[in-house]
Amino acid sequence: MTVIYNRVALIGLGLIASSMAHALRQFGLAAEVVGHARSAETRAIAMDIGLCDRVYATAAEAVQGADLVVLAVPVGAMGDLAAEIGPHLKPGATITDVGSVKGAVVEAMAPHMPAGVHFIPGHPIAGTEHSGPRSGFASLFNNRWWLLTPLDGADPAAVARLRALCEGMGANVDEMDVAHHDLVLAVTSHTPHLIAYTMVGVADHMRRVSNSEVIKYSAGGFRDLTRIAASDPVMWRDVFLTNKDAVLDILGRFTEELFVLQRAIRMGDGEHLHAYFTRTRAIRRGIIEAGQDTAAPDFGRVAQNGAKGG
Amino acid sequence: MTVIYNRVALIGLGLIASSMAHALRQFGLAAEVVGHARSAETRAIAMDIGLCDRVYATAAEAVQGADLVVLAVPVGAMGDLAAEIGPHLKPGATITDVGSVKGAVVEAMAPHMPAGVHFIPGHPIAGTEHSGPRSGFASLFNNRWWLLTPLDGADPAAVARLRALCEGMGANVDEMDVAHHDLVLAVTSHTPHLIAYTMVGVADHMRRVSNSEVIKYSAGGFRDLTRIAASDPVMWRDVFLTNKDAVLDILGRFTEELFVLQRAIRMGDGEHLHAYFTRTRAIRRGIIEAGQDTAAPDFGRVAQNGAKGG
Asked: Which among A158, A227, B73, B310 is most buried, taking Cβ atoms within 10 Å?
């Protein structure tokens, strides 16, 4: 691969930025990768594991001279960060973010972007339940979608260059407008996370069923929900606070739908349940055919212990 | 291993029974494994792949002379099946089932059990989203829990023998009473499945977000829910119809809890959300420490395509 940006500055060194650091190096997409994290502990770990060429104590220092700046912090922190670094951005530089919500990020960041800088909001649909500078790995974006939501009047050459970087890390890139992004993500990510958090919370509160029972017998389905309910609390708090309208819209639909199924259970309407459960299988097949999940049983989970009884 | 039952009859040759067939042979727990399935196609596949020593066209024939009979059919089919095979059970035989609901199964089966036969209801907390006679594999029960719910006056020696069989297939065995089982499973399995089915249904019905978008961008969390929402529709219909009271109880709690979070989103109460999301992480850690899931990021899913951009 060829170098696409000479210097890339990663602000916030969590799962996404640390994966980018690994991928940019592995695929030779940047000549230099520098970074900043607010926490001294995170900066120390990043230096210790050699995540970046240089780690700076402030974001303002980190972005100086960078050809691409990537804000990879919780959505609620983007505005203040943009205000801090705006005056230090190199003329002609591109700045993007990786936030899971785009409307609120654009609103918070755009006022701080100087003329002559290309602000192109983005969102890689990739992640795991782990967080922090040690959680990254170069293949995180492989065959995942990276959505870009360029604003009106965005420079096509700057967008194409950022797209090439994402593709260089293995991602597929789509462009869409900011509001549509936030609605699509409310359906495919934000509301699923909220109901997973809720179900885990219900299990945790039950008095007649102990937590140890919930944990022991989780293989019946519950454990699948707990993975996404273990994601970073600050990131998710900000997602729900900033994509409020779309999430409340989808939650309303979810509740309606749940009440219809609940009524079918109460009334003993087996035909309704059967027809509903049959339809949902097709969606799973589509996801597997689209290469967005594995067809292996149980996600291809590996058994935890050595074979017993064998 | 030593043979625990001379002849085992598996009635219904889906995921659970076909996994038992593989495991019983691999671990040498039965001298003979015979089977029956209602569908001629399933019987033909079972014979074709050599799943059992013999496959019978009727359940009544299959159970004759069997030391252990395992009913592995949807919960709603247990009663009629018990009525059919009751007169053909060998005196002193043990009969168990693998249904996900125990109260309704006991109610449906018990009246048909002849004196001198040991009826010991059971439920392996193991499965995948796949079904049918080809979906089984010997390690399905490895380090999974197998719950037995012996009735009042059950013969301790017969229970111990069935327990030894389950343990021989790699499972951990717990005993609990029927009603408690149904409540625990409503929390850890039945309600999680219902909310997963619901969320997948909502995504499928959206008009402003296309199904292809839902599928493409599912890696943000949605795909985790689709796995359990792809499970066998008949089995799950029966679960909800027969564990109605416990499921409606847990659903009521779930909805209350969801409304509290929904209100926090609407009111912008970030502290509440953050505290809630922090608590749910502990449950996930417990599941991993208990060996009921993998700590590998993303369930250890393997990337679908070869590395791109590398």
From this structure: B73
